[in-house]
Amino acid sequence: MTTTTRGGAGRRTDAGRLVALPVMAALAASRLQLYRAAKEQEVLAETFPDYAAYPARTARLVPGVF
Q: What gap in Å lies between CA 57 and CA 63, rounded to an integer?
């Protein structure tokens, strides 16, 4: 049951929406960044023949992790 009055239940729902929007925006931005990085890797590999050795010895985004 949802209410549109000034009760506590409506406030929790509104707060959840306020939190969900930035979280969804951050997830979308992260996904776009990963896509952009993958495309950039393709372009660099095509442009520089010796580039294949570089990503083999370095991390993608977070050194030592990913």
A: 11
- Is residue 44 a part of any domain in this protein? yes
CA angle (66, 49, 55) in 5-degree steps: 10
Residue 14, in any domain of the structure: no
CA 53 to chain centre: 27
pTM assigned to the model: 0.61
Positive or negative: CA dihedral 20, 26, 31, 32: positive
Q: Determine, yes or no, domain membership for 7.
A: no
- Mean pLDDT per block of 10 residues along the chain (66 residues) reads 54 75 93 92 93 84 70
